[in-house]
Amino acid sequence: MPPSKAPNGRTGRPPVTSRAEILAAARRLIDQDSWERLTVRKLAAELGIGTTTLYHHVRDKEDLLLLVLNEYAGQLPRPELPAGPQDRIVAAATFLHDAFATWPWAVEVLTADGFVGLLDDAALWPVEAIVAAAIDAGCTQQQAVVAFRSIWYYTVGEILVRARSPHRPVTGAELHFDFPANLDPAKTPHLTAIGRDWKTYAAADTYPHGLRALVSGLLPSST
Amino acid sequence: MPPSKAPNGRTGRPPVTSRAEILAAARRLIDQDSWERLTVRKLAAELGIGTTTLYHHVRDKEDLLLLVLNEYAGQLPRPELPAGPQDRIVAAATFLHDAFATWPWAVEVLTADGFVGLLDDAALWPVEAIVAAAIDAGCTQQQAVVAFRSIWYYTVGEILVRARSPHRPVTGAELHFDFPANLDPAKTPHLTAIGRDWKTYAAADTYPHGLRALVSGLLPSST
DNA sequence: ACCTGAACACCGTTCAAGT
DNA sequence: ACCTGAACACCGTTCAAGT
C-alpha cells in the first residue's frame, strides 16, 4: 500500500496534535497544578494522545518548558517606564519580579539553564532597560553589567525563597523563621528578643525596599 | 529460638551501620559527585548495605540532607568579626556566602524547606550577627529583619545562579549571557554594543561589591 | 532490634513497529 | 509523516518476612 495522500497534498498519517496545542495544554496544567508536578505523561493524557507522541513536537521536557516560558514572556504587556534612571531601573526590575512572582517556575527554568541565551529577543527588554538606565546614570558598561547582575541575584533569590516557602504562595512569612522554641538566649540574644515578631515583620513584601537600597548603592552617587 | 543476646546486653540483630556512618558516606558522595545525583540507592551501595536499611536510621531523604547540612554547618570555623556594624554585616554575609559557595546544595535544601526552623542553634550565629549589627547601626528590630531578609535574598540568588551555571563551578561567567548572535540592535542597542564583553565583565566575582551597595543602602545613613 | 528483597507507584526517554 | 505501546533505566518509599 502506498502512503495515504491527505487533501492538502502532504503524505502520511495525519497529526493528532500540534506544538501550539501542546504548549497551551502545558500552560493549563502548570497553572492548575504546580510546574514541579507537570510530567510528560500527564501532559499527553491531558491531550488524549500517546505519551511518546510528544517527542515528535518538542525535543525534550526542558525544551518544552523554555517554549512555554518564551510564549508567556512575549504575552506580558510592556509597561511605560519612568524617565529618571533610578526609577527606570526599579520599574524594570519590579516588572521582572512581578512576572516571576506569578510564574516562579520560570526562575527555576532560567537559572537551571544559564539564563538568557535561551530567551527570545522580545523577552530581553527588561535587561536592556536596566543596562541602558544604568549607563544613563553614569555607569560604565562594566558597572552597568555588574549592576544588572546584582539586581538579578536579588530578584532571583526573593522569588525562589518566596516560591518555595511552604503553602504561602502569595504574600507572607516567606522566610518561615519559625525558630525552635529552644533558642538559646545566650547565643542568639537578638533573635530571642525578636521571637514571634519575626513572623510579623517577615510578612511584609520588602522586595521594593531592598531593591531601592541596592540600586541607590550601585549607581554613581547623583543625589 | 529466643533472640540472640549481644555482649552489651541488648537484644536482637546487630546493626550493620549507624547514623554517623551514613552521614559520612552521604557527605563523601555529595563531595565526589553532585548532591542532585545522590540517591538513596547509591548511598546504600556505598555503605554496602541494603537500600531499605537506611530508613531505620533516617526518616527520609530530606531528613538525611538536613542532618548532613547541620553537621557541615557545625564544623565550619567561626571567624572573628570586625567592630564596625557595616563591616560586621558584610563579614557575616560573606561567611554565609562562602560556606554556601562550596556547598551550593545547602541553599537548595534550605530554600526548599523554609530555612531556619531546621537549623541547629549553633548554625544560626550569622543570622544573629547580621541582625545584631543592624541594630547596632541604628536599625529598629523590624528594619534589622528587613535588612537580613534582603541580604539573604541577594546571597541565595547569587549562589543559585552560580551553582546552576553549566560547568563553571568556581568563578566565572555565571550569567552565561551568550546572546544569540542575532540580537536586534534596534531593540537592544546597549546589549548589542556590549556584545562579547558581557562575558568578560560577568567573569568577575561581584558578590562583595553588590553586598556593600545593598548594606549601605539598607542601614540608616551614618556616613 | 535490626536488616532486607520484593514490590509499588512513579519518572523521562528511546525505539521498533504500526498506519 | 506521524503515532504508539513496550521497554529501558532509573527514582523514593513501604512492608512483610527473615535473623
Describe this entry's structure for a reader:
Two copies of one chain form a homodimer. By secondary structure, chain A is mainly α. Chain A is built from ten helices and no strands. The longest helix of chain A has 24 residues. The relative contact order of chain A is 0.10. About 4% of the residues of chain A have low confidence. At the A-B interface, helix 6, helix 7, helix 8, helix 9 and helix 10 of A face helix 6, helix 7, helix 8, helix 9 and helix 10 of B. The structure holds a DNA duplex (19 and 19 nucleotides).
Key features?
homodimer, 223 residues, mainly alpha, 0% strand, flat, DNA-binding
In short, what is this structure?
With 223 residues, the first copy, chain A, is mostly helical. Chain A has helices at residues 19-32, 40-47, 61-75, 85-102, 104-112, 125-136, 141-164, 189-194, 197-202, 207-218. The first copy, chain A, contains ten helices and no strands.
The poorly predicted ranges of chain A are: 167-176
Number of helices of chain A: 10
Distance between the termini of chain A: 80 Å
How many β strands of chain A by DSSP?
0
Percent range for β-strand residues of chain A: under 5%
Query: Which structural class should the secondary elements of chain A be placed in?
Result: mainly alpha
| Shape, per Cα inertia axes of chain A | flat
Helical residue percent band of chain A = 55-70%
Could you tell me the mean pLDDT of chain A? 86
